[in-house]
Amino acid sequence: MNQLINTGKGAARKLFHGRILLKADVAVKGKKRAMCQNIIDAQSAEIAQMQDWLMNWYGIQYAPMPMMGDMGMMSDPPMMMGMMAGLNRLEGVEYDIAWAESMIDHHDDAIHMSERLLERIPESEGHAGLRALAQQIIQDQSAEIETLEILITELNA
Description:
Layout: H1 2-27, H2 31-58, H3 81-84, H4 92-120, H5 128-156
Helix pairs in contact: 1-2, 1-4, 2-5, 4-5
């Protein structure tokens, strides 16, 4: 039962990453676009690693949740309403600021989930690779939050 629940949450995360990464691709230009590409690259690699672990450790084949919307996929399912609500109605600087704020919320959630994993699983137990990934997520996404906060300040100027 837990594997199914965890898989569902993983599917929701993957779906969110996919949607937010698509938004990142069109959100900003120049140096901001490079930051977006860095987020896409880092989180795509993390997603692929976690998919491999699900298969190798638990025999779970990851499958994203279907979504309807512009391309026949569900837009803004309830689990993502807080992060994604209203972004499609915004444009320009307003969109960029809302996107950065959503990414901060998303990164903050990933940091807290990683901290919980490290607190609940002693170093001598569990998968060392998972602990290492959790530590890397805390480090990388904390730095990205700082960058996103600077971006918001610049966009509000």
